[in-house]
Specification:
With 251 residues, the chain is mainly beta. It has one domain. The chain has 4 helices and 13 strands. The strands form 2 sheets. Strands 1, 2, 3, 4, 7, 8, 9, 10, 11, 12 and 13 form an 11-stranded mixed β-sheet that branches. Strands 5-6 form a two-stranded antiparallel ribbon. A hairpin with a 5-residue loop joins strand 11 and strand 12.
Length: 251
């Protein structure tokens, strides 16, 4: 998925680069590999990137940078202020959400030929969701569309976005949109569950895909990091993060 005005920067807390199919085979694969799968959340924390300014990088050790990065990303995702404290308690930080706004544009999605109806305008999400019941995956945003796949109970799928003004999610396999699921059948994957579920990239068996441009809106948030160092010095930094190709990104 490529947005014309977004660079490919840094992926977000629990919403990093994720791919999954809604097929029964994939659900079985998820269950079989969940215990020893790669923790896609933790992988992102080793690189603070733009989420922490140079002044912090010079003053914090690696573990402290990880902690501050994780709390800042969580504030971006949830829109809620966060408080972080180093393991020894000597360094603390308050991450405050000072502005939330919407932007509009378009994304390019790949769609298996002949599989889906035209994709309507979306509210961008790009996050893992869990099926709370066995769910039908349909070719369009409504029960009158054909069933093209299934999402089994407790399996994890990636929600590309929510159809604007409708109770349906568009789910996908990487950059490929694979179908629509009624929103009451899925829930966001809780943070506490991030090491218990695996988002697996299955083999793509689509004969051919075509690119479709979809109108989209997404959230941007301005975050203020106020950090108090062990010597009592206080530093303040602002960052602006937006929903992007691989989740939330510093803009």
């Amino acid at each position: 998925m490529k947005r014309s005005n977004f660079g490919k920067l840094i992926s977000l807390l629990f919403i990093g680069s994720m791919t999954v199919s809604c097929s029964t085979a994939t659900n079985e694969k998820i269950d079989a590999t969940a215990t020893d799968a790669v923790n896609w959340v933790g992988q992102q924390f080793s690189d603070a990137g733009d989420w922490i300014s140079k002044q912090y990088s010079d003053l914090l050790n690696d573990d402290e940078q990880e902690g501050l990065t994780a709390s800042t990303k969580l504030a971006a995702i949830t829109g809620k202020d966060q408080v972080w404290k180093s393991e020894d308690g000597e360094v603390t930080a308050n991450i405050k959400v000072i502005k939330t706004e919407k932007e509009k544009g378009s994304v390019s999605l790949e769609v298996p030929e002949g599989r889906l109806a035209k994709i309507p305008a979306l509210e961008l999400i790009d996050a893992p969701y869990r099926a709370i019941k066995n769910a039908n995956v349909r070719s369009g945003a409504g029960t009158d569309f054909n069933i093209v796949d299934k999402a089994n109970y407790d399996s994890v799928v990636v929600v590309i976005g929510k159809v604007q003004d409708k109770s349906w999610y568009l789910v996908g396999d990487g950059d490929v949109a694979t179908g629509f699921v009624f929103d009451k059948l899925l829930e966001p994957l809780p943070e506490s569950e991030n090491t218990k579920h695996t988002v697996v990239k299955p083999d793509n068996n689509y004969a051919a895909v075509q690119e479709e441009k979809v109108e989209t809106e997404w959230l941007c948030r301005t975050l203020q990091q106020t950090i108090r160092l062990a010597d009592g010095e206080t530093k303040v930094e602002e960052v602006r993060a937006c929903q992007g190709q691989d989740g939330w990104e510093i803009k």
